[in-house]
Design goal:
Order of helices and strands: EEEHEHHHEHHEEHEEEEHHEEHH
Number of strands: 13
Bound molecules: 1-O-phosphono-alpha-D-glucopyranose
Mean pLDDT: 94
CATH class: Alpha Beta
Largest sheet: 9 strands, mixed
Shape: globular
Low-confidence stretches: none
Strand order of the largest sheet: 5-4-1-6-11-8-12-10-9
Structural class: alpha/beta
Radius of gyration: 19 Å
Number of helices: 11
Length: 288
């Protein structure tokens, strides 16, 4: 199961961030000084995935520009002798090869993934959702690639969520006996269900999937919210091939939610030596 390509859906409207997301794609909102999408791409490339396909919509063109080489800017920084910034700008634009496909209708996550079919072809591939920021020593998608390789199985990332947040997620019903530490056989999955959830183990936006999922998505009918749900296609895939849920090592922030976004900014900001003392002083002052 060698994974060399990742699908990153970025076509969503980002209504939770209106009015800001009216003019700037939410994927470009910065966590400290890098757009959210930078961390997502960085996770893929640290796991050895170089080819990214963004599933985009109108108004999202700046995401591709962000990963493009900007000769004018590089020359400017070089002349100015700002080598650290030059290094950063260069790194991101050379690390990954970016492609894009348009999702012409907003028919749901499953439909967005299906839009990338021609680019992926017949290979297993990764999916990374931009709202889920995973902070981990070893990239989350890389951890999952190892599990997929070892068990020759599709893998979905899982994370325990509080009871009152369950209805926001796809929820897994794991076999009570784990396959290994952090690895579960998926018995069942349900998408955004308020009543009788099978557990508190949520699906997080990282997946390692076989190309077979595209055939399944072709005939997946609209589900929750009238959208073609990836979870519904996964339920069908699980009938053919045991899917594994993997409780990754690392912390996860919901960057698609205003609180999660501010939380990530604070935590990532506190890691910056030039910001930490002032941020701590500010927090202390606010708590007094
Ligand atoms: C999607 C999936 C859901 C998953 C979530 C993770 O939902 O459909 O199963 O739990 O991502 O972030 P969305 O947040 O796109 O509505």
């Amino acid at each position: 199961m060698k994974v060399t390509k990742a699908v990153i859906p970025v076509a969503g409207l980002g209504t939770r961030f209106l009015p800001a997301s009216k003019v700037v794609a939410k994927e470009l909102f910065p966590i400290v000084d890098r757009p959210t999408i930078h961390y997502i791409a960085e996770e893929a490339w640290r796991a050895g995935i170089r080819q990214l396909v963004f599933v985009t919509a109108s108004g999202k063109g700046a995401i591709e520009d962000y990963f493009d080489i900007d000769n004018g800017l590089e020359l400017f920084l070089e002349k100015k002798g700002d080598l650290e910034r030059l290094r950063m700008i260069r790194e991101i634009s050379r690390a990954v090869e970016v492609h894009s496909v348009r999702q012409k209708q907003q028919l749901g996550l499953g439909h967005a993934i299906l839009s990338a079919r021609n680019f992926i072809g017949d290979e297993p591939f990764a999916v990374l959702l931009g709202d889920d920021l995973v902070d981990a020593k070893k990239p989350c998608i890389g951890q999952m690639m190892q599990v997929a390789e070892k068990y020759k199985a599709p893998v979905i990332a899982a994370f325990r969520v509080p009871e009152d947040k369950i209805e926001r997620y796809g929820i897994i019903d794991p076999d009570p006996r784990p396959v290994a530490k952090r690895v579960w056989n998926v018995r069942r999955m349900v998408e955004k269900k308020r009543i009788d959830p099978p557990s508190n183990l949520a699906i997080i936006g990282r997946y390692i999937l076989p190309a077979r999922i595209f055939d399944i998505l072709e005939s997946t009918q609209p589900g929750v919210g009238g959208e073609i749900q990836l979870t519904d296609a996964l339920i069908a895939l699980n009938q053919e091939h045991q899917i594994l849920a993997y409780e990754f090592e690392g912390d996860r922030y919901d960057a698609g939610d205003i609180f999660g976004f501010i939380q990530a900014n604070l935590i990532y900001g506190l890691r910056r030596p030039e910001l930490k003392p002032r941020l701590l002083a500010l927090l202390k002052q606010l708590c007094e």
